[in-house]
Amino acid sequence: MAETLLHDIAQPHFTNALIHEKSPYLLQHAHNPVNWYAWNDATFAHAEREGKPIFLSIGYATCHWCHVMERESFENTDIADYLNEHYISIKVDREERPDIDAIYMRVCQSMTGHGGWPLTIMMTPDKKPFFAGTYFPPENHQNRPGFPHILQQIAYAWQHEREKIEESCAAILEHFAADKAKASAALPLNINDLAFQRYEQTFDPQYGGFGIQPKFPSPQNLLFLLRHHKRTGNSAALAMVERTLRAMRKGGIFDHIGYGFHRYSTDREWLLPHFEKMLYDQAMLALAYLETHQATGGEPFYAQVAEEIFTYILRDMTSPEGGFYSAEDADSEGHEGKFYIWSKQELVRMLGDDDAALFAAAYNFTSDGNFHDEASGAASGENIPHLRLSLEDFAQSHSIDQYELRARLSAMRERLFEHREERIHPLKDDKILADWNGLMITAFAIGGRVLDNALYTQAAERALEFVLEKMTIEKDGAKRLLHRYRDGEAAIPAFLDDYAFLANGAFELYQTTFNLKHLQTAQMLADEMIRLFCDQPGGGFHFSASDNEALIMQTKEAYDGAIPSGNSVAASVLARLGKLTSNKAYQTIAERTIERFAAAIQAYPTGFAQMLMANDFLLGVTQEIIIAGKTNDGEIHAMLRLVAEHYAPHTLVAFNHAPQELGRFVEQAAYQTERNHQATAYICENFVCHEPLTGSAAFKAALLAL
Considering only CA atoms, which of 275, 278, 308, 199 is closest in space to residue 244? Predict the structure, then answer.
């Protein structure tokens, strides 16, 4: 397999300070002629001594436009010479240092009205920003100034208008200081209905998803809609989810040859993706497909897609030690998508005329190609495999038995996959991040439970064990998480997302295995999260720990974007932990967290799907189920399978086979035990427990009524 870790280096005779870093993104730039520095105290002290402004460039290893700006500007010796003379240049991997990225992205969005990567910041040696932007071309182009022009303008201002720069810095910081004073409030009781109305307004009934283009998967929106359907019985909410998930699986945003989903679609129809693959997208989409499988009464299509995602992750994105890698690039050999596209001629060479004709018809290949050149917009002769018809409909329209069709296409896919493996692979960002691993642990834990697949459960347990063993240090008598692991080194003090996402993953592992060590881990992480990040007076959680590096401001992130925010997941996991263990302190902190962001949620409810799910759990009717009996009892296994297969997002479960042990966490375990040596289920709802049920038949009837 021809796999590359770092991009081809255009000028290997240059070497800068990034050569000593672990981040694949920073190492990509270690041989630029730009004299890059890493973010550290020594770099800022050097800038202060030199009296130069700082050029801060933030991106990540699989960022297409980061690669473009590198090729155009950072490998250009004339631009590099100017930078080296007039600036101190710092590179930051946003995935290693999301705290830095969160602050300066907020600055960019405030100053320009938009954001993205590469993120371009100009700031003083004491880290105060005064200019922000994203990608800049190497020359002035239409309304976008060229990067050299920007550098020259700012260098002049630094030399001759320093007072204006200082005033600008003060105004920016004053704006964010005023923005911190937010009043807490309770959300209106109809907030979920308001959010659903917004989703209805932006839903694309033809192709699924929200908005026109570009289209992002946004799985947390689908998870919210599933819960709204469960609470209200609103069939439109479920229909929106199903339409979207089926359309995405057909489209080019799904890798039909190697599985897994690309980052987003550039068009309305989910055809032309931005080809990078992110770990967090796989995790969140797996959850959406798994829950929809449950919510549709076990529709196998959704289980199949979740299994395809897991196949990709276990095959390509899992380290030998058990942790999950971060991402795969969109680019290979200098071109976006080259690894993933095919010509009809190549198809014939690999499959032969008959099979190639069938595959091309099913996956919509054309001689001119359905993939268009990015620069010219002209057809390239290359194709992105995608489906217009379901395989059932295609089989019917071509008078082929659908099972024969599936078998033939599956065999062809495997041959094409083996051939594709010989291509030059996109960069694989093989760093392991605690927070993204928490998301994937959650997905595998739920996958193991819903699909009754021990392999998925084991993958979740291995990854959690890896993080707890390899990505922690002892500090002040406590085990502290670290954010990043790569090449044998764990580093960077963990952030809120790391604790919240891992706590949630450990909690879901308990719900799958009922191994109390996972519940204990979830509580330990939750307690540390509260100790290190919780703003007890103001409500909510800071992104950085109280003893992490001091930056120009502390942020509280609540917006649920490509991944849910740390505050949203913290509220969710505390709400469920509090309910299961009767810990009212957890629930109070969760409630205050939601109240802290109430104004923002009311203004834009669809931007806070995960937070709304946490609020729904706290305020709505929930159930706690204790199933008591012996571990080797067939009726116990039948009861637990019923729970796993049933869509019950507002239900928590404990398995009571050892009352004394479980009683350390769940107080009612002492008396909710098996009756008459029979498997017994206790269902409690709204602080009231129903009559105990013995046997799986009675339990099934009660479960279906929830």
Answer: 199
Going from the C-alpha of 119 to that of each of 54, 55, 104, 361, the distances in angstroms are 13, 10, 8, 42
Please count the residues of the chain: 706
Q: What is the pLDDT of residue 183?
A: 62
Whether 17-179 and 621-706 share one fold: the answer is yes
Strand segments, DSSP code E, in 360-467 are: 371-372, 379-382, 428-429, 432-433
Give the whole-angstrom CA distance, residue 703 versus residue 625.
10
DSSP 686: T
Q: 567 in helix, strand or coil?
A: helix
- The CATH code of the domain at 621-706 is 3.40.30.10
pTM strictly above 0.85: yes
- The dotted CATH code for 17-179 is 3.40.30.10
**Domain map (residue ranges) of the chain:** 17-179, 331-425, 621-706
Q: How confident is the model at residue 616 (pLDDT cuts 50, 70, 90)?
A: very high
Query: Does 182 score more than 70 pLDDT?
Result: no
Quick one: tokens of 554?
């502390």
pLDDT of residue 380: 75
Half-sphere exposure of 270 (CA within 13 A, CB side): 27
Q: Contact 65/49 with Cβ under 8 angstroms?
A: no
| pLDDT, tens digit, 9 for 90 and up, residues 558-585 | 999 989 999 999 999 999 999 999 999 9
| Cα distances (angstroms) measured from residue 481 to each of 322, 329, 371, 375 | 17, 27, 44, 44
Contact 26, 5 (CB under 8 A): no
